[in-house]
Design brief:
By secondary structure, the protein is of the alpha+beta class. The chain folds into five domains: 179 residues, 3-Layer(aba) Sandwich (Rossmann fold), CATH 3.40.50.300; 97 residues, Beta Barrel (Elongation Factor Tu (Ef-tu), domain 3), CATH 2.40.30.10; 74 residues, Elongation Factor G (Translational Gtpase), domain 3 (Alpha-Beta Plaits, 2-Layer Sandwich); 102 residues, 2-Layer Sandwich (Alpha-Beta Plaits); 89 residues, Elongation factor 4, C-terminal domain (Alpha-Beta Plaits, 2-Layer Sandwich), CATH 3.30.70. Helices cover 26% and strands 33% of the residues. Strand 5, helix 5 and strand 6 form a beta-alpha-beta unit. Helix 8 packs across helix 9. The mean pLDDT is 83.
């Protein structure tokens, strides 16, 4: 174990983690130069197109210094706050972290968030400034300011911050050597029963032939392919199909070989139900033991269920594509255990699914993968959050405003703590957004030439258009990270949309009481533009607290029924007009508004 180093690269989104990982793969000869491509560890086309990492990617590398060969286990992690759960799991699997900062952007929100997670996990943190090839002189004031800020953040001298360029490879080998020098080798933990090996499941994916494949870090003992395994969180026992390591593709270990203490690898569990494999769970080697003995083994610390915070209902654009949508979501769920999927029904859009996500980007990525990989065009509802409702009979949780009970005492909404990093000259711009997004408890702190703006606000505000308005107000120079901190009493009002006096399902929203009328008028105006005119008058109304707070009308189409008449007595025209009036009354009496999925989709856009 003295020659093993386990580490991660952590950074804000788009600061060059995957590009630096490419250089490590080249330096260590892990990937043949003929096979090398940019962002090699990002396996999804969507990751390369957006330039972001969505799924963590482990890889085993070998590197020799002075005749001593070291085994290096690296995890390339996502940088967006929506995937911070994956980052936290990877940090529990390693002893060290490279904290990477873009020299042109400086410290950003997720830089701070990931650093806090790394320190909480007790890791050795090595600071590195990336993209230094964009500066001709290392003494450039802008570059020195970033170095100074990073050094202060991790409490080291400026000379200890390394300069690298993921693009050119400059400084990458020195950084790798620094990892070997500073990151401690793994050490065996104190297990309650040393006769059973223990491993942390830090990721998983589904294989049609092997079942669920778990990515593991072994903390005690060894795991070999002859063993049975037991998963503590789900009380699941299974026979191992195969074991191996990441190179970065799956590399099968020969029969009799093992994944030893301190090493990374994969275990093909043979389990077909992905719900049985939980990220952060403890995998226990059983061998010849029995389940009663295994039950005495203490789980590794840190396990918790991922909690979806954003909920969206998906419906197929064409009703006959329901099975295709179901198949696509099932496939995505096999490789993304954080998705929460439940059947749903809408009177306008038909059958669909309510899906829970870790954040708005998680939702956007999943929606895009459904379209690309499974060719499913969908209509989705407004993103919503989980509300807790106090009723006379007890507490109830809802995500759809339509499910609000007729009688309730109070509504609690989820609250987040959010850190925004921005240039100091943009402070007034962010303060202008304070009331719009219901921010409270604002504090500020200077970090180098930037400002950390910390506040609390409802999660519902974040999943609306907060990101766009923040970027607009600060000219794209601000970044943010957040975490759920609890629930608080909310003064929100359920608002329903009625067309021809019938409530339209799927369009109900919760709005803050002080802005409900403004938001309702905007929705009514938008719906008026989208709905086609009919032979009858269509009143569009917004209803809240049992009263109509906004209204507009789509006038009926007019047809001149006397156009073909000429000359003669007016009596004949009057008869036709009266007949037309009676017909319109009958139409109004049984008027039914059918909204096409295309119209519904346009209405749901921000």
């Amino acid at each position: 174990m003295q020659n093993i180093r386990n580490f991660v690269i952590i950074a804000h989104i788009d600061h060059g983690k995957s590009t630096l990982a490419d250089r490590f793969l080249e330096i260590t000869g892990t990937v043949d130069k003929r096979k090398m491509k940019a962002q090699f560890l990002d396996q999804l086309d969507l990751e390369r197109e957006r330039g972001i990492t969505i799924k963590m990617a482990p890889v085993r590398m070998r590197y020799a210094i002075g005749g001593t060969e070291y085994l290096l286990n690296l995890i390339d992690t996502p940088g967006h706050s929506d995937f911070s759960y994956e980052v936290s799991r990877s940090l529990h699997a390693v002893e060290g972290a490279i904290l990477l900062v873009d020299a042109t952007q400086g410290i950003q929100a997720q830089t701070l968030a990931n650093f806090r997670l790394a320190k909480a996990a007790g890791l050795t943190v090595i600071g590195a400034v990336n993209k230094v090839d964009l500066f001709e002189d290392k003494n450039d004031p802008r570059l020195r300011s970033v170095v100074d800020g990073l050094a202060k953040l991790i409490s080291v001298k400026q000379e200890e911050i390394l300069f690298v360029s993921g693009k050119t490879g400059k400084g990458a080998e020195e950084l790798l050597k620094k990892v070997i020098e500073l990151v401690p080798p793994p050490r065996q933990t104190e297990a309650s029963d040393v006769s059973h090996a223990r491993a942390l499941v830090f990721d998983s994916f589904y294989d049609d032939h092997k079942g669920v494949v778990a990515s593991v870090r072994v903390f005690d003992g060894v795991i070999n392919s002859e063993d049975d395994i037991f998963l503590i969180a789900t009380q699941t026992r299974s026979k191992i199909k195969e074991i191996g390591y990441f190179a970065p593709e799956l590399r099968l270990l020969a029969k009799g070989a093992v994944i030893g203490t301190g090493e990374f690898g994969y275990v093909a569990t043979g389990v077909r139900d992905p719900e049985k494999i939980k990220i952060g769970d403890t995998l226990v080697q059983v061998g010849a033991g029995n389940q009663k003995q295994v039950s005495l083994v203490k789980p590794l610390p840190g396990y918790k269920e991922p909690s979806p915070v954003v909920f969206v209902s998906f419906y197929p654009s064409e009703s006959d594509e329901y099975e295709l949508l179901e198949h696509g979501l099932e496939k995505l769920h096999l490789n993304d255990s954080a998705l929460l999927i439940e059947p749903d029904q809408n009177e306008v859009l038909g059958r669909g699914f309510k899906v829970g996500f870790l954040g708005r980007l998680h939702f956007e990525i999943t929606s895009e993968r459904l379209r690309r990989e499974f060719h499913v065009e969908t209509v989705n509802t407004f993103p919503s959050v989980l509300y807790k409702i106090k009723t006379p009979s007890g507490w109830k949780e809802i995500v759809k405003p339509e499910d609000l009970p007729a009688e309730y005492e109070e509504i609690l909404e989820p609250i987040i703590a959010i850190d925004i990093i921005l240039p100091q000259e943009n402070l007034s711009d962010i303060m202008a957004l304070q009331k719009t997004f219901r921010m409270s408890g604002v504090t500020t702190e200077t970090i180098g030439d930037r400002l950390q703006f910390s506040t609390k606000m409802p999660l519902a505000e974040l999943v609306s258009d907060f990101d766009d308005q923040l970027k607009s107000a600060t000219h794209g120079l601000a970044s943010f990270s957040y975490e759920l901190v609890g629930y608080e009493k909310a003064d929100v009002v359920r608002t329903d949309i009625l067309v021809s006096h019938e409530i339209l399902p799927g369009l109900s929203r919760f709005f803050p009481r002080d802005s409900v009328e403004r938001e309702a008028r905007a929705m009514v105006a938008k719906l008026k533009k989208l709905l086609p005119r009919q032979q009858f008058n269509q009143p569009i109304q917004a209803q809240a607290d049992g009263r109509i707070i906004a209204r507009d009308d789509i006038a009926a189409l007019r047809k001149d029924v006397t156009d073909y008449l000429y000359g003669g007595d007016r009596t004949r025209k009057m008869k036709l007009w009266k007949k037309q009036q009676r017909g319109k009354k009958r139409l109004n009496a049984r008027a039914e508004v059918h909204i096409a999925p295309e119209t519904f989709k346009e209405l749901l856009k921000k």
